Amino acid sequence: MDFIYIQAPTYKKYTGDDDYELRPDHYRPELIDDTKKKLAENPTDVDHLNGYLPQGGLYIAEELLRRGMSVAILQDTTKKLYPKIDENVSSNTIAIGISTLSGDMLLHALDLAKYIRNKYPDIPIIWGGSHTTAVRDVTLKHNLVDYIVWGEGELVLPQLLDAISTGKGLEKIKGIGYKKDGKLFITERSEYNSLDRIFDLPYHLIEDMHNYTRKMIIGGDRWLPMISSRGCPFRCTFCHNTSDVYPMRQLRFHTTENIIHNINKLVDNYDVDGIGFEDELTAYNDKRLVEICHALKEVKGDLTYRIATRVDLMLRLKDETLKLMRDSGFVAVAYGIESGSQRMLNYMSKDITIKQVIEVDERLNKFGFKKSYNFFLGMPTEKIRDMKKSIKLLAKLGRNNKTSPYPCSQTPTYVPLPDTGMYKDAVKMGFKPPTELEGWTLLDSKDPIKTREKMRPWMKKDELEFAVSADKKVAETSVHFIGQDADHKMIDSAMNSLEEQFGV
User: Helix (H, G, I), strand (E, B), or coil: what is residue 55?
Assistant: First the structure.
């Protein structure tokens, strides 16, 4: 292979010869139970435990294939990933790329890089992904990193691979980092990639695609993710899209033709029965959404769909558009609320009100959509009284959620992301960005109380304990209702219990 793309595992799995540590999945608790059972019967039976579909690798691979290069896309949640690397390394391998987020995924990325360095010391290791983009200097200086690609990689990586293989200079390649004479060099941001170039995603490069299909609690057994857009014009201060250095400010859309082509491809080859649009701008405006909905009626098979979106975007949609969504197969809507405190919403620059949140929820009820919400707990300046307001709002939404199989969603404790507005405040309030790559693995620590001083120093101990306890309770409540035909009495009781436990 000319290039090997590896997405670091999203689950913590292999901890010994026959020992696997499972990372909780609030959305698929049955996966955890099923896995424990299968591993008890056969400790090596973990083929069904792939993480999330490596969509970034698909986009990069299409561009490399167009240029006549051979590509392998690898991702696994077990130590079986190492033999897969060995199978694909050849004398033609120019480099191996590792894409990672911060936290647990970064921990796995370091393990992968160590394995590659020890076994293939002459093959350069290129790091990419959102963590690399956000923490460029710290990533590049690590001894397990030879080059970085920051920002969008489709147009940058081919240039870098060409330079590595031919010995050409690197100075004029935008969007990379490299080492020379013991010094670090990071070039300026690369140009935005047009999504018009990306049409026929090479799903065939992913081994065992069926392992990435997911059973969704909203219905359907074989769901896969897809994005319809890239970039975001909004300014939520906790999100890396708001960074001036991160190349996601420029909003771009896939054509409707492209979307339908790839959905049909997934239907034909992998028998999918549902698509989750992961980007938050599929419903950016009526015109675009109407066009997509009409086109979805021509998709092969009987599919259902889910979108992620924003409260304000849903408010902009006409009633007839919502009806069209429902009639064309959309069954669920996920949206970020982030907080039940108006003060915190203003602080986050969400540009929404609590009144609008309730209005959207009732409106979606009217059209029969299933809903899920996202809240954050433990942000800079947030107090227990603010978190209680989030629990109160979540409980209210839960009681009003007449169509969804569960009344709650995730409430993860906030972690600081570099190059965001809120990150700057976190630094002012005591957060000291790790100067070594290993330090960023603490973001997803299983013991947030223990790591409080390093990762969330703005929080008092009682505040963090409240946030962690509330996060756990909400997750347990959500899990409780998954797969159940919960009646309103059961939901009301659970919401009352949630409020009572946290003094709301």
Answer: helix
- Residue with the two structure tokens 């007839």: 320
* Same domain? 219 vs 180: no
Per-residue pLDDT tens for 266-315? 999 988 999 999 888 899 989 999 999 999 988 988 899 999 999 999 99
Domain span at 362:
213-501
One domain for residues 323 and 459: yes
Alpha carbon distance 502, 463 (integer Å): 12
Backbone angles phi, psi at 390, to 5 degrees: -65, -40
> Per residue in 313-370, pLDDT tens?
999 999 999 999 999 999 989 888 999 999 999 999 999 999 999 999 999 989 989 8
The domain tally of the chain equals 2
* pTM listed for this prediction: 0.88
3-state secondary structure of 61: helix
- In angstroms, rounded to a whole number, what is the distance separating the alpha carbons of residues 391 and 503? 10
Helix (H, G, I), strand (E, B) or coil at 289: helix
Which residues have a Cβ under 8 Å from the Cβ of 254 and sit 6 or more positions away? 195, 198, 227, 228, 229
Closest to 163 in 3D by CA, of 110, 151, 175: 175
